[in-house]
Amino acid sequence: MKAGVIAVQGDVSEHAAAIRSAAAAHGLDAEVVEIRESGVVPECDVLLVPGGESTTISRLVGDEGIDREIVDHVAADKPILATCAGLIVASTDANDERVDTLDVLDVTVDRNAFGRQADSFEAPLDVDGLDEPFPAVFIRAPVVDEVGDDVEVVARWDGDPVAVRQGPVVATAFHPELTGDHRVHDLAFFPDGADGTDDADGSDDEVAA
Predict the structure, then answer these.
(1) Treating both helix axes as pointing N-terminal to C-terminal, what angle do 54-63 and 66-75 enclose, rounded to 10 degrees?
(2) 33 and 2 in contact (C-beta within 8 Å)?
(3) Using an 8 Å Cβ cutoff, are 124 and 138 in contact?
(4) What domains can be seen in the chain, in order of their start residue?
(5) Distance CA 126, CA 3 (A)
(6) Which of 42, 78, 144, 199 is the most buried (most CB within 10 A)?
(7) Mean pLDDT value across the chain
(8) Phi/psi at 118 (5° precision)
(9) pTM score
(10) How much is the pLDDT for 202?
(11) Positions marked active-site
């Protein structure tokens, strides 16, 4: 499988390591490419949009023509995982006119709802599809204020949605790539085996598409 990480900002190497680990757990080799210009996204089976600063990310993917390719990727029903600022950029409404959203995830978000960098925290999070709590890392994290009819909430913190899914798009308000735990990447790219194990009959899972 070929995995693309939008590399204009954010935890690029950490996401690359997480997708390699997730793929290996399913008996697959992942070729990871860092994407900073147009023309690469169409070659990818899966995409990751890391955190960072949402206004900067949205501007840079727009300037490079990557934004339209991400939209086409989702329209082709190819999986994508967007984390923290990536969730904001993927949304339909960032509550901030400085962010040119991709409109691939029917949610409204509240940017930096969890406060400043000093307010960062880690918490055990119950996530639908995972047997054990996930050690979620929240850093200047957004909160999902509203979800569309086709959006599934897969995790909440203090009652607020912090992980959602719509079709091939999985998005989190937290940073799963900083934990050494690739189960959220499993949920995004291997939904039939999100515990990171191979099928009972020894066959390999196929990447979601």
Answers:
(1) 90
(2) yes
(3) no
(4) 2-193 (3.40.50.880)
(5) 27
(6) 144
(7) 89
(8) -65, -20
(9) 0.89
(10) 36
(11) 84, 175, 177
